[in-house]
Each structure stands twice: as structure tokens, then as C-alpha cells.
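[stage:ingest] chain + small molecule (magnesium ion)
[stage:ingest] validated
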Amino acid sequence: MRNPRAFAAPLAVGAPSPPLEIPVTPARMIHFFDPSNEKMAGKLPELAAQCDILLGNLEDAVPVDRKEAAREGLVRLGREVDFGDAALWTRVNALESPWVLDDLMRLVGELGDRLEVIMVPKVEGAWDIHYVDRLLAQLEARHDLTKPIFVHAILETALGVTNLEEIAAASPRMQGMSFGPADLAASRRMKTTRVGGGHPGYRVIEDPDPHDGDAPRRSAQQDLWHYSIGRMVDACAATGILPFYGPFGDIADVPGCEAQFRSAFLMGCVGAWTLHPRQIEVARRVFSPDPEEVRFAKKVIEAIPDGRGVHMIEGKMQDDATWKQAKVIVDLAKQVAASDADFAAKTGL
Ligand code: GLV
Ligand code: MG
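[stage:predict] done
[stage:export] C-alpha cells:
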């Protein structure tokens, strides 16, 4: 049992109170950069102007002999670079690794006032979040931070998926979750070497023609990730945190990336990771609501000011529930329009 009144109390003397609301600003792309790359400093201002979130990655993809260079690079970049309106996040190393303790100690000490969210990989249960939660409170107190740092879990092990509701509810610091298809595939022993997206072997096929056993049969690829993304979206919506799709590894396959991002968006995700500048524009377009859908949703809201009763609009039945659907689209559109002039012009918001 946990005393519900303690949930909103700091976990260390002198730490700021935990956040009771999470920031809801556009988070269409979390763009990953390697802070051990010396050339990054020059590129970051331009990337920041295009991205909602920039994330300095310390975990997988950073070679073991560059772990410290990445950590120190992030400290330097976080201090020197002007990120404009883009939020600065990091992905620290996994909790069982030899680097994570120094990642947290060093980054909170040096960048605690600039880091909005710490992404924790390979979270398996609420206990992982509790550990990070208490440690962050101790470090915030030690460094006199006044603003609490948020935590974001990557869902990328079978145990993590099994426990995802408890993970989502583990702390008021929880800002969101990302879906990690590469580690998850390995953890589940799925037989794919792809990072996200579909697989030509995972498909349904129509029945044979009873009159012609040799006739070709239509068949279509299915979505390998639907079940787990659906569970993640429900757990996040139920606890008021934000779900994200993670990486799409085939950088050259822009239509494949777009399809994966769009399925996630339609299911309720707010954004995705981008691993290459080419994917940034895709995420911006896909995770901003469709202007035609915005037009219709605005019409529904204007036509039904009290959101009640049954109405016909453009031949489609509208009622209290569809009014709420329209509100989801218009609220997101207003949020995006506030920081994206092109989108504001396209939607008249
Ligand atoms: C991301 O970290 C993944 O494993 O897909
Ligand atoms: Mg991973």
C-alpha cells in the first residue's frame, strides 16, 4: 500500500515537489543525436529549429569506448547550444549497466535545470521507476533544483510489456513511454531482424477457391506491433501520460516509415523517434492532424456548442461521443498551430 497523500510529496528532503501535470506541448518527433560526435555542436541549432524534442543518446548505438565521451559531450552541448523552443532530453544507459549511475549523477548535476525528460531504457517493472524516482529526488535536492525532471520509460522487453500498466502508474514523474521494437523483438524471440515496420512473412491469406485450388489467393501483410502498441496507448491514456512509437530502422524506406508512424498516430501515439534528418519531416507531417480532418472537426464543434444530442453534419451522425473525438483533433491542432506557422496557415488556426 502507498499513502495516496505521499504520492505528491518529494522523495528526498529539499527536492522539488513531483509534477502533478505533465507538459502537453507538440512532441511529434524525438530526434536522437550522438553527443560523442564532435561535429554535432554545429548541427544542433539547425536541428533544434526543426524538432519538437532533441535527445542526446547515451545508450545503444554509442560504442562502449565512447560512453564517457557521449556523456561529457552532452554536458558540453547542453550548456553551450541554444536549443530554442526544442526540449532537451536524454536516454541514459540501462539500469543494469556500469554507466547509468554516472550518467544520472553527472547529468543531473551539470544539466539538471535544462533537461526536461530522462528516458530510461529496458524498464521491466515499477521497481525500475521507483529506483530512478528516488535517486533523481536525491540528486535534485543535492543540486538545489527547483523543477523536477520527468521520466520516460522505453517498453522493450517482454516483462516490461507484461507490467506496463504498473510502470505507467509508478510515479508522478512519468511523462510517457516509447515503444522499442528492436529490443522487444529480441526479448520475445521474434524472428525478425528489422527495427519496426512490417514483415513480408506476417500476413493473412484468403481461403482457397473451392472450384479452383490453384487460383491465386489474395494476401496482405499484418501489423506485428498492433497488440503491444495498443496496450501501451491504453496504459498511457489511463494514467494521463504520453505514448510514443520508437525507432524505424530502414532509413531509406520513407513510405514504410510513414506507414508505421501513421498507424501509431491513429492509435493514439503523440510522436515517434527520428534517427535521421529525413524522418523529421515525416514525423512532423504524420503527427500533426490532417488539415481536412481539422476542418471537419472544427465544423462539428461549432455546430454543436454544448456537445450534446444527435446531429447530421455532411451526412454523418454526430453525438456527444463524436463531439469528444472532434475535440481531440481540434485541441491537438491548436497545440501544433501555436508553434508551427505552416500548420497554422493550413488550418486557419
Ligand atoms: C529501441 O531502443 C529499440 O530497442 O527498438
Ligand atoms: Mg532498445
